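We treat protein structure as text, and this decision shapes the records that our systems exchange. Below, we set out a record of this kind in full and without editing:

***
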Amino acid sequence: MNSREAERTWGLEVYPKRELTLVRGSGAEVWDDRGRRYLDCVGGIGVASVGHANPAVARAIAEQARTLVTCPGIFYNDRRAELLEKLVSIAPPGLTRAFLCNSGAEAVEAALKFARLATGRPGIVSAMRGFHGRTMGALSATFRKDYREPFAPLVPGFSFVPFGDADKLRRTVDDQTAAVLLEPVQGEGGVRPAKPGYLHAVRAACDEVGAMLILDESQTGFCRTGRMFACEHHGVEPDLMCLAKAIAGGVPMGAVLAGDRLPPLIGKHGTTFGGNPLACAAALAAIRFMEDERLAERAEERGARFRDRISRKLPARVRAVRQLGLMIGVELRERCRPTLERLMEGGVLALPAGSTVIRLLPPLVITEAQVDEVVDVLVAALAR
């Protein structure tokens, strides 16, 4: 029985599978079980920012695995303390503490609980087209009906406003709002960056009624958009910031960064695996690699190269290209699935972001030549 047959036989299938078995990766490249090489613009859905099989991360994992893998939060730990200090040192001003967990959805769940606890209010306002995860609280803040409706009733108290409409948000936020939860760039919602001034208006609306601003940077954090965190493009300081995906070089991890508005939390939340030394060691190595290799600058340069090269050859079937760093959305005038299949045939792996948008989230170590190859394959796929 091969890998595909085994997964189909023994796995609970929750994903629409592509007929491809990946077995190895290096940098921005992956290989299948037949030895064919692909340029990976899926990147573990924005996870592999420091590249596949990153040597620094691999060394840190191996060394920590030989030392101490697990240590619950009821004890102090040297590696956890080191990572907490590092996260606070790179965080936007005002975020002075961190809670470590295992995923973006867990980070969102924790932030929602923290906001309700801090304010004593039930209401959460999030955005249409927003995506925050699939657990019950995170799903309650996620917009797509086909994700939500099979699991109704969800957590009460959630409402949605159009992303970018500051006036509508001001009219919705009131003295019963605990928090506004937004992505600085909507990822699954079509790669839609916040417009200039919008997040400042949201910050002001929250301040006016005493609500908290939660920014979900699960996908945008850690150099993806050309800054360590996407909120730095806007100069906006959130009360809580959710992190995950690229934080630990591919090892599962999430985090919530917080300011000084939270009450005492002992006994109010917890996690078995969050902040384990293995994931902390991987995260420390990944973040140091991002800084040493200046991946934020590289993402900005490589993203601009993609935008400039694709704009010279833009087929008529492309409606728009939206790009911030190496977070790229190519919106078509038709469904994107056939083009995704042609891209795979041409040796490039990419994601959908809704029914008409191709999403590209390559490792930030992608080379200029590899960017050019992605553009050439994409143009060819769209020409067919």
The chain has 13 helices and 17 strands. The chain has two domains: 3-53+294-383, 56-292.
